[in-house]
Amino acid sequence: MTTPGAGDALYDNEDWAATRAAPEVDAEAAPVVDVAAIDPNLADPDAVAEVVAPSREIETAVGEPLLRTAGLTVKFGGLTALDDVSFEIRRGEILGLIGPNGAGKTTCFNAITGVYRASSGIVYFDGAPLTKTKRNAITRLGIARTFQNIRLFGEMTALENVVVGTDARHKTSVPGAVFRTPRHRREERDAIERGMALLEFVGIAPRAVEKAHNLSYGDQRRLEIARALATEPKLLCLDEPAAGFNPSEKSALMDLIRKIRDDGFTVLLIEHDMRLVMGVTDRIVVLEFGRKIADDVPAAIRENSAVVAAYLGVPDEEGYDDGATSG
Amino acid sequence: MTLTNAPATPGRPRAGVGDAIRTWWDGLARPMQWLVGVPAIIALALLPVFPPPFVDTPFLSFGGVMAQFAMYALIAVGLNVVVGSAGLLDLGYVGFYAVGAYTVGLLTSPNSPWNQTDGGWLNPDWAWLACLPLAVAVTAVSGLILGTPTLRLRGDYLAIVTLGFGEIVRLLADNLTEVTNGSLGLSQIAYPHVGESESIPQGVFSAGNVDPPLNSGVWWYWLGMFLVIVVLLIVGNLERSRVGRAWVAIREDEDAAEIMGVPTFNFKLWAFMIGAAIGGMSGALYAGQVQFINPTGFNIINSMLFLCAVVIGGQGNKLGVIVGAFIIVYLPARLTGIEVGGQSLGDFKYLFFGLTLVILMIFRPQGLFPARQKLLTYGRQVYQAVRRPNPSPVASLAPPPADAPK
């Protein structure tokens, strides 16, 4: 079947777009939301951070382990993607999870958020094991995540995407919505207020009514973070949030991650970019071939020989010797 | 045939007639919307009373055609919840229509062993009215029974199972002869006994009321329109709530929705039940209007016709699918009796709608009136804050280049 717009590939060429589509783009100028007209408070960053901050009871004290994996093992047939991995995330910190490609970082993520079932081992979250909890229930317990390849609801606007996140904390179902109960109306108002505040927090509030798939790549990444934050998580898991970013965007993202932590969230960060990881995390766990090889503060990880070997490879002793003797 | 939400060409919004109407409508203030909307609905209601010459159907009662349109409109709105909003391809929707019709038939027809109208707990005068909510409830339960095991399936597999369900219902009606009277069908089904007078001894809703302009078809059309409006209000409320957002999120990316805390299975089941209940309501209307049902009226080809109405109208747009239903019902009726080569043009409807679907899939896969659903109860204040200024202020207001790498 011809996909709609298969022929548009021709016009995706920038030169073509410049010559042909320019007037059309002007006419269809992206709708911009006048943020101040919705809620004047959104101009004040402190007020925004106040609305965004989680207002939930968390059992764990600051600095105590919020999430703990004990001997987490995930097997796909004969392949052991994750082998006996144990680490903990302390409340209020930014934990980096790094490792070479295929080390099992995303598998670890998926095992924590319930996408994969662990073959053995247990994940404890806020004091309770997450063995048979459904995926949507895990989110409501307080683990939110973003995806390595962006998975937004493309046909929904940015604001609606975020509101789906806030709905995780709402309880209105079909009867409440049909009869527009007071609780439904209260939740809907809260959804708009929190949703706009979250978009402002990540910096894309003016694009609130734009369809998600029309947003630029960077804005989509930000929207994913906003949607995850909207579920009021205790732990926010970011899966390679800087993939495809240029250096200035990366530094803006680092600021955003710090801002999120300062607002009271705990963050688990998977990232390839060493500069970003070293710059923003409090502690780093390193995986290689599904095993944990290091768990320390960034400065110590930098000096750790096992980590350096994992990333740069070990010098081939024999080959090196051969070269030396013959030369 | 790919029916799953083919996205509109991204980045290049096309402004069509539907967009122009919507923009105009959204721009009106609330009281103005009432001032325009109410007369429009009244005009629509009076259409079969004063049929314009070209619009009238020459060989069929225009009132009857409009009554059928109202039923199909109900079906389209119900199927749109399942297919358009939640993205669950249901090819056996006619099954729910049949369950609704047979609920009324079995409880009120003298051919049925379960007839309750002669000495049972149903008074013949209000039997149909009492059966309407019953039919809705029974179909909702049938949706629950079908949905609980099957909604774990996705995409094509779900479509195949629902296709089977539609056939199962028809075959049951055909073969349970002791109960459903088999292919002979159930006759003399109850209808609302209203407006009985000397000239119309059986009331205005009786099939015997054939005198224009206010024949039984017109009365059923008005009743159907009333139900369509009620259902539209309910479905609209659902759309602009957590429920509607959950449905669209499931349609867009079911796994991502689940991970964002949407209990996807529950909401899919709700969509299925609500869709089924609306289909059952339409079936009850059909049983009452025709006063006779038999299994051939619930062939699987009808399911395709219902789906055709939704796809032509524009999946997800509840007013668009009503237009789709109108096209599906009206065009064959209008062309009936116009003969080409000894065949009435109306008989070619499956050929024409098949062609239409193919052409539509190639040139406009989103349907005639694709609309983005509004999913927020208080979204109006946000949409009112939208400014569509000329390009220069946009550039200055747009986020700094760091946010927009493209």
How would you describe the overall organization of this protein?
The complex is a heterodimer of chains A (327) and B (406). Chain A contains 15 helices and 11 strands. Chain A is an alpha/beta fold and 327 residues long. In chain A, the strands form 2 sheets. A 6-stranded mixed beta sheet of chain A has the order 7-8-9-4-10-11, sandwiched between helices. Chain A has a 4-stranded antiparallel beta sheet with strand order 3-2-5-6, covered by helices on one side. In chain A, helix 11 links the parallel strand 8 and strand 9. In chain A, helix 7 (158-167) packs across helix 9 (182-202). Chain A is globular and about 70 Å long. Residues 1-28 and 321-327 of chain A have low confidence and may be disordered. The model of chain B is unreliable at 1-13 and 389-406 (pLDDT under 50). Chain B has 406 residues and is mainly α. In chain B, the strands form 2 sheets. Chain B has a two-stranded antiparallel sheet with strand order 1-2. In chain B, strands 3-4 form a two-stranded antiparallel ribbon. Chain B is built from 16 helices and 5 strands. Chain B has helices spanning 17-27, 30-46, 62-85, 93-108, 127-150, 155-175, 177-180, 216-239, 242-252, 254-259, 264-290, 300-313, 318-335, 349-363, 379-384, 391-397, and strands at 186-187, 292-293, 339-340, 343-344, 386-387. Chain B is globular. In chain B, helix 3 packs antiparallel against helix 13, helix 4 (93-108) packs parallel to helix 6 and helix 5 packs antiparallel against helix 11 (264-290). The interface between A and B is large, with 85 and 68 residues. Strand 1 (32-33) of chain A pairs antiparallel with strand 5 (386-387) of chain B.
